[in-house]
Specification:
mainly alpha, Non-ribosomal Peptide Synthetase Peptidyl Carrier Protein, Chain A, two-stranded antiparallel sheet
């Protein structure tokens, strides 16, 4: 349990730090590229619902930027956190297998879990 909480805390901290890095890259590299397509003056990549009402402008460039920030943050967090952790777990499992250690047995199911398994099996049998 402690390991999971620690992993989650590390993921939040690193994810927040990388979000700032990705936002900076997008603001200083991607946004100017989108602005060159007309997004800076909100004429090229925008749609004004009511003419003359600046509050009715839908700025597609800002939406594209938000998606790019989200996507890049997710990619960085995946490749910096998930892939290395998976490699570490695989190495530990291989080392344990090489030593001849058996994998720990799973914990027995609680009464609630047993009932849910029985319900699932009964529903599967009914569908067949």
């Amino acid at each position: 349990m402690r390991g999971n909480v620690l992993d989650l805390a590390i993921a939040v901290v690193i994810g927040t730090a990388f979000a700032a890095v990705v936002k900076t890259v997008v603001d200083n590299l991607v946004s100017p590229l989108i602005a060159s397509l007309g997004g800076a003056n909100v004429d090229g990549l925008a749609w004004q619902i009511v003419d003359g009402n600046k509050a009715s402008i839908i700025n597609f460039a800002a939406i594209i930027n938000a998606f790019i920030v989200f996507f890049l943050t997710a990619v960085v967090v995946y490749f910096v956190l998930v892939v290395p952790m998976k490699a570490i777990q695989d190495r530990r499992a291989a080392a344990a297998a090489a030593k001849g250690e058996a994998e720990p047995e799973p914990e027995p199911l609680t009464m609630d879990q047993q009932l849910l398994v029985e319900i699932r099996d009964a529903l599967k049998a009914r569908q067949q």
